[in-house]
Specification:
The complex is a heterotrimer of chains A (112), B (119) and C (230). Chain A is mainly α. Chain A has four helices and no strands. In chain A, 76% of the residues lie in helices and 0% in strands. The longest helix of chain A has 28 residues. Chain B has a single domain, classed as Orthogonal Bundle (Helix Hairpins). Chain B contains four helices and no strands. The longest helix of chain B is centred in the C-terminal third of the chain and has 32 residues. The N and C termini of chain B lie far apart (49 Å). The model of chain B has no long low-confidence stretch (mean pLDDT 88). Chain C has one domain. The mean pLDDT of chain C is 84. Classes of the chains: A mainly alpha (112), B mainly alpha (119), C mainly alpha (230). Chains B and C meet through helix 1, helix 3 and helix 4 of B and helix 1, helix 2, helix 3, helix 4 and helix 6 of C.
């Protein structure tokens, strides 16, 4: 029974990894590609490690530490890449309407 | 059977890297293709050393000293690949340094701009 | 047009050669004779449970020394190629390093100690389980990279790194020469007592060699990474 749950979780993790790869191929510009790659692959990693914990219950503490480590490093590295890309002015896709970073950096010139 | 699948994967990676190196015009993509060829070669070398139903050549609770000569995988290709991975990193660093200097001289990353060595 | 056609022909020919290689591949059923000798000899003579580290640091230790020399040459070469760039010639906002964002600074505060401890664990476990000097050195260099990303104004002390790396290399060769004097050959690990099989301080000089190798590779890769800053 525990093996069935573990197998379902690992299969879900593999599906998310596949969607990460598919997203990186099909997305229009660099920022959306980075977003697809990081979010989906981090979740895929977490699900695969959690599914492995059902196969080997003795490894649960080590796998939780691994999941914590993956959750700490993947988003930070993707954030650094995206900030660097924004700084050298890689163009955004044409459908983009909101640039929150530019709005957050401009000094506020309103009343009140 | 397992070793044939892994060997085919490594050879496919070498082929993809070779195609990428010949087709792209951007220097950074050529460097990534070199790195792919390196990774594919490492996989091929490790796959050659696989023994049927073998396990890693590390003696711990799973593999006792008496069992080791009959059940362990060949350790020599793994030792070669450990060295090769670090050398691959160093070669990539040299290639990237050259790419930086090439960009400094012509302000472009396309390899078509550098025609001094052509006939 | 000619170019694309010739590329396609070349890739297809290589593909045919590789396909014939993969199709005619017959896996081993048992270990080849040399590998069998190594797998028997390493736990018995050297007292190291990890056969690969035993091979890399005793039987094929000369290759390891050669690879250390190659890494040193690469560090020197990268330094030579990148040294004569004009440093920050334009004062435009793109080329001035600003402060890194808060996410990276906070993440680096938590992660750099973790990564350093993990690297030390990998280096010290080289003779017991998977690991060793090279792998640990690369992980140390990645923690230095994270430190540089979190604080772009950080100045690495390049003199300290270079001298540490040289001292580690010299000590490596001195341990090898001690093997010539006190034991059977160059870089023989029986200069230190073999100890109990599987204990932390066992397998003679292999942990010491792993530590020296890890320190040297880590410093070298950190110097290479530091050269790439603008």
């Amino acid at each position: 029974m525990a093996e069935v749950i573990g197998s379902i979780l690992i299969l879900l993790g593999a599906l998310f990894h596949f969607s990460a790869g598919l997203g990186m191929l099909r997305m229009p510009d660099a920022y959306t590609r980075m977003q697809a790659g990081t979010k989906a692959s981090t979740l895929g990693n977490t699900l695969i490690l959690a599914g492995l914990a059902f196969y080997h219950p003795g490894w649960t503490l080590k796998l939780i530490i691994l999941i914590y480590f993956v959750l700490m490093t993947n988003p930070v590295s993707s954030h650094v890449l995206a900030r660097a890309a924004y700084r050298i002015r890689i163009p955004m896709a044409r459908e983009t309407t909101v640039d929150a970073l530019r709005d957050a950096r401009k000094p506020w010139r309103g009343s009140a | 059977m397992i070793s044939t699948v892994v060997l085919a994967t490594g050879l496919a990676l070498i082929l993809i890297g070779l195609w990428g190196m010949l087709t792209h015009r951007n220097i950074l993509r050529i460097i990534i293709s070199f790195s792919l060829i390196g990774t594919g070669t490492h996989i091929v070398i490790v796959a050659i050393g696989y023994v049927a139903n073998g396990t890693a050549p590390i003696i711990d609770r799973a593999l006792s000293v008496a069992d080791a000569p009959s059940r362990a995988v060949d350790p020599i290709p793994s030792a070669l690949v450990v060295t090769a991975i670090v050398i691959g990193l160093a070669v990539t660093a040299v290639m990237l340094a050259y790419a930086i200097r090439l960009y400094d001289s012509k302000k472009t990353l396309s390899i078509d701009a550098f025609t001094e060595s052509k006939w | 047009m000619i170019r694309r056609a010739s590329i396609t022909v070349a890739v297809i020919l290589f593909g045919l050669v590789f396909a014939s290689l993969a199709a005619n591949h017959v896996g081993h059923q048992s270990l080849p004779p040399l590998a069998k000798r190594y797998v028997e000899l390493v736990p018995q003579d050297l007292g190291a449970p990890n056969v690969i580290t035993g091979i890399l640091l005793t039987y094929r230790a000369f290759d390891t020394l050669g690879e250390v020399a190659v890494l040193f040459m690469v560090a020197a070469g990268v330094g030579l190629v990148l040294k004569t760039r004009k440093r920050r010639s334009k004062k435009s906002p793109e080329t001035q390093p600003r402060q890194a964002s808060e996410i990276v600074q906070t993440g680096a505060q938590i992660l750099v100690p973790l990564i350093a401890i993990f690297a030390a664990y990998i280096i010290m476990n080289g003779h017991l389980s998977a690991g060793g000097g090279f792998q640990g050195g690369a992980v140390i260099a990645s923690s230095v990279l994270l430190l540089l990303l979190a604080d772009p104004q950080q100045r690495l002390d390049l003199d300290f790194l270079s001298s540490t790396e040289s001292i580690a290399g010299v000590l490596f060769v001195l341990v090898g020469v001690a093997g010539l004097i006190l034991a059977d050959g160059f870089l023989d690990n029986r200069v230190l007592p073999l100890g109990e099989f599987g204990a932390f301080f066992s397998a003679g000089a292999i942990p010491l060699l792993s530590v020296l190798l890890g320190v040297k590779v880590g410093c070298e890769l950190s110097v290479i990474i530091d050269r790439f800053r603008a």
